Amino acid sequence: MKSISTQEISRRRFIASAGVAAAVIGLTPHRLFAQKETLVEKARKAGATAKMNVQALRGGVSALIGSGGNIAVLPGPDGKFIVDSGYLTSRDKIAEALTSVSSDPIKHLVNTHWHFDHTDGNEWMHSAGATITAHENTKKRLSNTTRVDDWDFTFPSSPAGAIPTDVIDGDKTLRLNGATITLKYYGPSHTDGDISVYFAEADVLHTGDTWWNGYFPFIDYSTGGNIDGMIKAAESNLAMVTDKTIVIPGHGPVAGKKEMTEYRDLLVLIRDRVAALKKAGKSLDEIVAAKVTAAYDAKWGGSFINGDFFTKLVYKGLTNQAE
Ligand SMILES: [Zn+2]
After folding, report:
1. What pLDDT digit, counting tens, does each position of 49-99 carry?
2. Ligand 1: centre distance to CA 101 (Å)
3. What phi and psi values does residue 33 have, to the nearest 5 degrees?
4. For residues 269 and 294, what is the distance between their CA atoms, to the nearest angstrom?
5. In 3D, which of 227, 179, 234 has the Cα closest to residue 208?
6. Position 323 pLDDT exceeds 80
7. Which residues surround ligand 1, an ion (CB under 5 A)?
8. Computed from CA positions of residues 253, 256, 259, 262, in that sequence, does the dihedral angle turn out positive or negative?
9. 125, 128, 111, 266: which is closest to 194 by C-alpha?
10. What does the DSSP assignment read for 186-233?
11. What's the CA-to-centroid distance between 235 and ligand 1, angstroms?
12. Ramachandran sector of residue 108 (left: φ over 0; alpha: ψ -120 to 50; beta: rest)
């Protein structure tokens, strides 16, 4: 028998104990040795090179589209009112786009929810002069270490300057720059802190991530989201708009009621298909293998949420229900 050196034994012990430690702290061993780039890190990196397009909509409201969550801005004598702050890595492009809209200072920022692609820019916008308004659960997530299992990522608490300064727990109406702006809480849907922002005179709605135009949406179960809440939010978005309303989704191009209806119908259809298979006794693996999204994958699977991932997210919301 070949003898094993002391060094080899201690190396083996190290690997074994590292494996145990990894299991305890929730990491798979390979991540301890070869750090794989997470989806969050990839997204932030992409933010450094993404292009930011400014789209003038109506009543002075513009949308900034192209990097991170879609941003809305209403400039005026009360200072710029901004919805969501994008990636920190896109700061220069966002600042340039905002300056192209007007020279008014940045004064007001609203976060539609806590996700990094909507709040990474909070600190710089706050230091530029913005108060930050958000739902109390958004403040809670940003103030604490927050793990998102489906992204395999743990976000440290945000720096003091990035934390919302004005917290709402329901609905709120603001009067700024001659506009009536209504913030509306959805209840648990994409997360547990989602709010919409409606510019009444302009008839422009920002839905945050309760609407992904043309993409299967992410649903963040780690922080209170669920598929039924997403469907409820899609219904409440539809109840808020007419055929004339211009709607800024959290992700995807600006559109309106027609596209929102298509999206709501898709969520309901996939939910019902997954629920029916679950009721018939199928396991998650069998349901994923059944490819219930197949006819929609080419059109809706273009983001990091492909059909299989979305099916799993839907299933997760049904696990505690007697379907
Ligand atoms: Zn989000």
Report:
1. 999 999 999 999 999 999 999 999 999 999 999 999 999 999 999 999 999
2. 25
3. -95, -40
4. 12
5. 234
6. no
7. 115, 209
8. positive
9. 111
10. --SSSSSS-EEEEETTTTEEE-GGG-BTTSPPP--GGGT--HHHHHHH
11. 18
12. beta
